[in-house]
Each structure stands twice: as structure tokens, then as C-alpha cells.
From TrEMBL:
GO terms for molecular function: cadmium ion transmembrane transporter activity; ferrous iron transmembrane transporter activity; zinc efflux antiporter activity. Belongs to the cation diffusion facilitator (CDF) transporter (TC 2.A.4) family. GO terms for biological process: intracellular zinc ion homeostasis. It is a multi-pass membrane protein. GO terms for cellular component: plasma membrane. This is Protein p34. Residues 10-202 form the Cation efflux protein transmembrane domain.
Length: 295
């Protein structure tokens, strides 16, 4: 099992543990805010399962029907997670509405706080792991899962704050009101996840700093060529696709031009893992005198 799949499988297990703790917290308190937190944890488990399946698919090698690989499967997982977050938020808003119409003080608030607090600590620690490894391994599915857990952590902190304020203020409506605010925060996060994932499905370019580094590497390692133009980049999951036209002197041999291409490819692949590079070699008559200037 790959390292990505191991982390995704661990997310499912941790999600089930957190769901159990939050479900118990709601069971002993009857709090609408804790119910909202538990509902979001159900989505966490479903999203972790979706991420696991997507990572299994994206890890498959290229085949006759998918000659560029299956890397975009991770974006479908992230979009699905965003949809699930939105559905969870709408469900929480519904519960908050009915709870506001018929407010009540939570039962056993201390026990609820302890259970929810333990779940929050577990989520916070795992969230940091997912975000760190997801970004390091360029995995949209793991990053999306980490961002989702971050919203869950924020949610839980808000719920715990509400537990303190409800008995202090003597205002039971604060419990469903807090649940409603949590739902709005979840909606915002879900929208952000879907927006980023759709960008990946639409072959969005890598971040500007990555594109700038690609141009720099091409310029530095293309000695002997004249220029590189029509540079295009896109990313799909952990893969980055780079293609451009390389202009060389008209009398340069094929072997010499090929050696320059090999040098550029080695430089890009050494610094940027999981990169697919396509170079079209042209004679100097095709120079556009723009694009990447060879140093």
C-alpha cells in the first residue's frame, strides 16, 4: 500500500474514533451545537472513504483508455468532499432553526465538554499531519481532507466556547445560534474546496512561483539553444505537465538538440518530482524572440 493510501486509511480510522466521541457528547447533553459537530464528523468519515478510493484510482498506471494516467481522480474526491460539507451545513442549519424555536439547556455539560474536547485534540493533531504531507506529496485529496478537518476543529472550539457561555449567560438560545454560525463557516469552507478542485479539473496552471521556477530552469539548462517559447503548464493531482517549443540553430544535429532536451528534462525532474515534459524542437527560422531567453 502506498504512503498516500496509508494516510487515507488512517483518516478513516481516526474519523470513526472522533465520530464516536462526538456522538457520545451529543447523547449525554442533547445539545444542538454538539449534534451539528457530530453531523460534520459523519461527513468526515464519508469524505475520508472517498479520498481513499480516489487515491487508489489515481495511483493506477496509465492504460490504453487513460494514456495520461488517472491523476485527476483526486479532484473528484475533493469536489465530493465539498458537496458533502455543504449538505452537512444545510442539515445543521435545519437543526439549529428548530432548536432556536424550542431552546433548552444542555444536560451534563461537563461530560459533553470532555468528550468533545478529546475529539477536538485528535482532529487538530491529525489535521496538521494531513496538511503537511498532502502539500509535500502534492495530493489534492489529502489537502482537502486536512482543510475539512480544520473547519471541524474550528467548529468544535466554537461549540466548547458556547458550552461555557450558555450557563454563564442563562440564554439557552445561544446553543442553536452557535450551531447556525458553525454551519455558515462550514458552507464557506465547502465552497472554497469545490472552487479549488474545479480549477484542477479544468487544467489550471500551477502557482505562479512554480511556473517562474520552471522558466528559470529551462533558461539555465538550455545552453546551445536560442530560445524557448509557447511554454504551457498544467497540473493534475500530484503531476505537473510542462510543454514548450525549443528553438535551436538550423545546422545543429539531431543528437545535439536531443542532448539539450535531456539536460532540461533532467533539471526539471530532479527539482520537481512527478513532472511530465514535452519539448518540440524547431530551427532558428521559427524563433519568435519572446518567451524564455536562454542564458
Amino acid at each position: 500500500m502506498s504512503r498516500n493510501l496509508q494516510v487515507a486509511a488512517a483518516s478513516v480510522l481516526i474519523g470513526l474514533i472522533v465520530l464516536g466521541l462526538k456522538g457520545a457528547a451529543y447523547w449525554v447533553t442533547g445539545s444542538i451545537a454538539l449534534l451539528s459537530d457530530a453531523l460534520e464528523s459523519i461527513i468526515n468519515v464519508a469524505a475520508a472513504l472517498a479520498a481513499f478510493i480516489a487515491l487508489r484510482i489515481s495511483g493506477r498506471p496509465a492504460d490504453d483508455n487513460h494514456q495520461y494516467g488517472h491523476h485527476k481522480a483526486e479532484y473528484f474526491s475533493a469536489v465530493l468532499e465539498g458537496v458533502l460539507i455543504v449538505l452537512a451545513a444545510l442539515s445543521i442549519l435545519r437543526e439549529a432553526y428548530y432548536g432556536f424555536l424550542d431552546p433548552r439547556f444542555p444536560d451534563q455539560p461537563l461530560n459533553g465538554m470532555l468528550l468533545n474536547g478529546a475529539a477536538t485534540v485528535i482532529n487538530a493533531l491529525w489535521c496538521m499531519v494531513l496538511l503537511r504531507v498532502g502539500r509535500a506529496w502534492r495530493s489534492p485529496a489529502l489537502v482537502a481532507d486536512g482543510k475539512h478537518l480544520m473547519t471541524d476543529v474550528i467548529t468544535s472550539i466554537g461549540v466548547l466556547a458556547g458550552f461555557v457561555l450558555v450557563p454563564v449567560t442563562g440564554w439557552p438560545q445561544l446553543d442553536p445560534l452557535l450551531a447556525g454560525l458553525v454551519a455558515l463557516n462550514i458552507l464557506w469552507t465547502g465552497w472554497g474546496l469545490m472552487r479549488e478542485s474545479v480549477g484542477g479539473l479544468m487544467d489550471a496552471a500551477p502557482p505562479p512561483d512554480v511556473v517562474a521556477r520552471i522558466r528559470e530552469l529551462v533558461s539555465t539548462h538550455a545552453a546551445g539553444a536560442i530560445e524557448a517559447h509557447d511554454l504551457r503548464t498544467r497540473h493534475a493531482g500530484r503531476m505537473t505537465f510542462v510543454e514548450f517549443h525549443l528553438v535551436v540553430p538550423g545546422d545543429m544535429t539531431v543528437a545535439a538538440a536531443h542532448a539539450i532536451c535531456d539536460r532540461i528534462e533532467n533539471a526539471l525532474e530532479t527539482e520537481m518530482e512527478d513532472t511530465v515534459i514535452t519539448i518540440h524542437v524547431e530551427p532558428e527560422a521559427e524563433a519568435k524572440h519572446k518567451g524564455v531567453v536562454v542564458l
